[in-house]
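For the sake of clarity, the format in which proteins appear in this thesis is described at this point. Each number in the token line that follows is a code from a learned vocabulary of backbone shapes. One such record is shown here in full, so that the layout can be seen directly:
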Amino acid sequence: MTHTHDLTAMRLAAAVRSRELSPVEIADHYLERIERLNAQVGAYVTVTADLARAQAKAAERRVLEADDPAELPPLLGVPVPVKDLNMVNGVPVTLGSEVYRDLTGFADDNVVVLLRSAGSVLTGKTSTPEFGLPCYTENAVAPPARTPWDLSRSAGGSSGGAAAAVAAGLAPVAHGSDGGGSIRIPSSVCGLFGIKPTRGRVSQGPVVPDLFGLSTGGPIARTVRDAALLLDVMAGPKPGDLYTAPPLAPGETFLRHADRAPGRLRIGRSATPAVPGAEVHPDCLAAYEEATALLVELGHEVVDMPPVFGPEIVPHFELLWGVMATLTPVDPAREHLLQPLTRWLRERGEATTAPQLIRAHAALQGALRAAFPVMEEFDAILHPTLAQPPAPIGHFHDQEPPENFRRQTLFTPFAAAYNISGQPAVNVPLHWTRDGLPIGVMLAGRLGGEGTLISLSAQLEEARPWIDRKPDIWDA
């Protein structure tokens, strides 16, 4: 028997337009599952049940009054939760922090405006670690976000709540964001497809600055086509954005890329981490080798590429990360409410001088100028998404800040390079361990090359479908 949460976002949207399913029925189904199962996976920090039902009723009226269903918005009646680092006007926003437990959103972020315009229904705000800084989602305002594949393990971060929601059937797709791997990491440990778009593809405004260009919003989904559709909805620069991605050709969409073959591609690959001391677990190497074999089987040329980012970039990125931790204002009278890791990162950031920051930024630009000529030889680049399988709850959070941060860098030694470069990158869920844990692989592309990554990922999905893989909680 097929249930509503078994349907993809694309199928839900089509069912709404054809009046096969009511937006109210869809919203009620997901809200019931959230009420029943959210405590187990820690996906939502705020559930907006009344708002969701009101939006669903409005969507239902639009369907009934429409002369041409094809002209209805692409996500009309489809639930899409928003990560709790982003503002929704009138909805609580905690930023994953006890400091902001009582804050209510006073504006819609630009990406939220686009999600509203697309007709989506807001079921709630998904959990994130404090200020989105760690690669796991454990904070003081909500239970830990857990991967539905093993509830003793973290759903990753910082979009851990978003990934847990999609993987547990508490949302068909979800909005996430990625400043150092924060879409790809939870997508990997939750068995999902996630896209970190090209720098400037999705607006960070109007509240959040994009000074360093590390972070961007992006989609988390069960299928490539769902993610492509959500990216089409979320994409678009706004006045004041510091970065703008290369535009798509007139009339082109990311969804159309999901429906066309990529052609024969030249793909580089590397499993050599830039982070000193990082070792790639055999399960992660197995996923990488299996992906390589599948790419070759599909007719692509796959070659080993030299490492283009070495350990010299790591301290420069860490310096920027500490400075970014200071950008969220905190009342000095409430600083004691911050998590130990956040305080430690902010102390490092506040101790950084302007010349040190400029030199780090310049050093990273120099590294990119040397790396891009090598990377431009390839249509895509394959890496393990993570160096280790999903981590137990507390593996990072229960440590003192220096050890916590060290463990995070060893866990995610491949992801941040593409935040530094601004290139698009995706997690593709092709592999599961013998114990049933998902292990993703990462594909990175040229600047503006999301379309190629989407076409290639759709080809991989067709060859090795993963949508029928579901954790036990799915049928609960």
Q: What stands out?
A: The two ends are 13 Å apart (CA to CA). Residues 354-375 form the longest helix (22 residues).
